[in-house]
Amino acid sequence: MGLLVDGEWRDRWYDTAKSGGRFVREEATFRRWVRADPAAEFPAAAGRYHLYVSRACPWAHRVLIVRKLKRLEDVIGLSVVAPLWGDAGWTFAGATAADGGDALYDLTHLHELYTRADPRFTGRVTVPTLWDRERETIVNNESADLVRMLDREFDAFTDVRLDLYPEDLRPEIDAINERVYAAINNGVYAAGFASTQEAYEEAYDRLFAALGEVEARLGERRYLCGDRLTEADWRLFTTLIRFDTVYYLHFKCNERRLVDYPNLWAYTRELYQHPGIAATVDLEECKRHYYGSHASLNPKGLIPRGPTLDLTAAHGRERLRGAAS
């Protein structure tokens, strides 16, 4: 794990000593927006913007899902980093886009993109990152922002009229996102990257309390906000789909497996079976990334063979269609 300091790469882990052993995620650095308005600083356009992602990363995965759902594959380009995070951060697997290389600049490391935008950049180099090919700069590297941009600002370039953040549900979506992010999405990392027993147990207890709340909620309604899929569901899904494969063992989140929660497990299968979503999921790549990249957690880099998960089994969630939000 590392970062850039005045444009120079430093192999430096998160400093948890100053936060009592607690993992504190740093805020995204680039928070500019693509807008549908042609007069905007960054106007939506086909072919102008390019996403940098990791298929292993849950934060990047949520953006890939919206790109798929909105059918924006021909509108927004894509470069995918290699699964392993090394001493120099995210890298590209090949010399060309066809064999896993960078599709734009033939980069070898993602941090080169950040210094291309700002030669004196200081901060973490993260995925997803949205690049503006015209101005040759980073627009945004906050996944929550990118989910909403792709959902709303590129409608002129797709015939899909899906709305993942409907106005009437926004207060409920925002409240759910806040709880799920703190306790579940980031909660698994807070447990996995904790450096004291107290910090680990605090994150662990918060995580499983929240999973219990969501399990109960999904026993009464098909989706988090009732009978409509929203961004809140996809933000939760990318953590759930990795839970038994990675977080249960690697991050010591082992009170219960996802498959031990009847509603959560059925809900995860339903979302996985939603048209187009299975193609965005690569659990083998997730295992290669997590177990191979975190030497402090898994010094020998051994990758578990299991678990065996049947994500295509019938989910039975149709019975909850029409549940009140």
Q: How would you portray this structure in words?
A:
- With 325 residues, the protein is α+β, with helices and mostly antiparallel strands.
- It has two domains: 3-157, 3-Layer(aba) Sandwich (Glutaredoxin); 167-320, Glutathione S-transferase Yfyf (Class Pi), Chain A, domain 2 (Up-down Bundle), CATH 1.20.1050.10.
- 36% of the residues lie in helices and 8% in strands.
- It has a four-stranded mixed beta sheet with strand order 4-3-7-8, with helices on both faces. A two-stranded antiparallel ribbon has the order 1-2. The protein has a two-stranded antiparallel sheet with strand order 5-6.
- The mean pLDDT is 95.
What topology does this entry show?
Elements: E1 3-5, E2 8-10, E3 49-53, H1 58-69, E4 77-80, E5 85-86, E6 89-90, H2 111-117, E7 129-132, E8 137-140, H3 143-152, H4 170-185, H5 187-192, H6 197-218, H7 231-250, H8 262-273, H9 283-293
Parallel strand pairs: 3-4
Antiparallel strand pairs: 1-2, 3-7, 5-6, 7-8
Helix pairs in contact: 1-3, 1-7, 4-6, 4-7, 6-8, 7-8, 7-9
